[in-house]
Amino acid sequence: MRRGLRHAMVALCGATLAGCGLIGGVFGDGIPTPGTAADLGLPLDAYELGPVDRAQALRARFGLITECLRQYRIDFQAPAVEPATYPKNADYLGWMEDGQVRQYGYAGPPGYASFMATDGFEPYTVTDEQFNVLTGKTKRFHGKAVPSGGCETKADSVLNQGAKGVPAAEVTKRFNRKEVQGLADDASDAAWRDKRIGAAERSWSDCMKRAGFDYRTPVDAMGDPRWATTAANDEIELPRGTPEEIRTALADSACRREVDYYGIRKAVYTEHQDKIIRDHRGRLNTIRLLNESRLANAMKVLNGEITVSW
Q1: Which of 60, 144, 157, 205 is 20 to 30 A from 51 in CA distance terms?
Q2: 128-135 and 51-70 helices cross at what angle (nearest 10)?
Q3: DSSP of 30-54, one letter per residue?
Q4: pLDDT of 57-87, one tens digit each?
Q5: Centroid of chain to Cα 227
């Protein structure tokens, strides 16, 4: 019955627009409509470390990798790691409220594109010899045996150690920190096929038309070739933050809120992530247990309480 009610509410929003989707600030299935970046949480977040803890684990991992490479006389400069501050799930939920649209339009303040893309550390490059020892592509280097899987896997095995309820083979494997992200992307693919997302975009488009803009989806507005780089204009440096871009972005932001675009997307993404969790509960529990051990061991590594025999 609740599923049918939610579908009916979205259909009604597509037809009547104003005042739809929001009942006392809560979408039809009891999920609060996002009001700030703090409201963007989704179910799969529970299986990943938060930004601060994740940064600690990464610092320890890079430290172990640096120490491992030093055994092979390889000077590796690990990147500085800071907690990622771009709102998690902002892209999934179409969130644009932190981009200062009144001043910058869709471009965001200076450095915003890099801020959005950051993983907590700047991208870095390695030489061929570093890569081979990092990943174990070579068995020996400078006369010394390379650990199975290379320095990356060795570092992960140190952080994974002691994980309770996790198979021993899992503890000694390279940790895939993008695994939960991959499952979240699978949920995103399913969400984009959900008719409720299409209904929300039609409501948004109707709102924009009343404001004097003709776009089918928010992506079309953000990707308008008058200000967005496309394959057809990637050699031209377009002016950003023009009055027209700002006017469009302000109308876009207002319409997303008017039709409860964020609330609808959060409800849909929550449902599809819940299904992913049901389908992969065993694997996700293993990842959660590994993350708990990785954080605890990272603190010991950073405090000098764990020594490693390379």
Answers
A1: 157
A2: 110
A3: SPBPP-SGGG---GGGGGS--HHHH
A4: 999 999 999 999 999 999 999 999 999 888 8
A5: 25
Burial class (CB within 10 angstroms; exposed 0-12, middle 13-18, buried 19+) of 163: buried
- Beta carbons of 64 and 158 less than 8 angstroms apart: yes
Q: Average per-residue pLDDT in the chain?
A: 87
**Which helix (DSSP H) or strand (DSSP E) does residue 96 occupy?**
none
Token pair listed for 27: 């979408």
- Rounded CA-CA distance 68/309 in Å is 9
Other beta carbons less than 10 A from residue 232's beta carbon: 8
Amino acid at 306: I
CA-based radius of gyration for the chain = 23
Please, what is the Cα angle at 287 between 262 and 152, to 5 degrees? 110
**Mean pLDDT across the stretch 258-264?**
97
pTM of the model: 0.84
CB environment 40-52: b (16+ within 10 A), e (fewer): bebbbeebbbeee
| φ, ψ for residue 162, nearest 5 deg | 85, 5
Q: What angle separates helix 261-279 from helix 281-302, to the nearest 10 degrees?
A: 100
Residue 246 CB partners (closer than 8 Å, separation 6+): 101, 102, 103, 104, 105
Q: Is 27 helix (H, G, I), strand (E, B) or coil?
A: coil
Q: Which amino acid is at 220?
A: D
Give tens-digit pLDDT for 193-214. 999 999 999 999 999 999 999 9
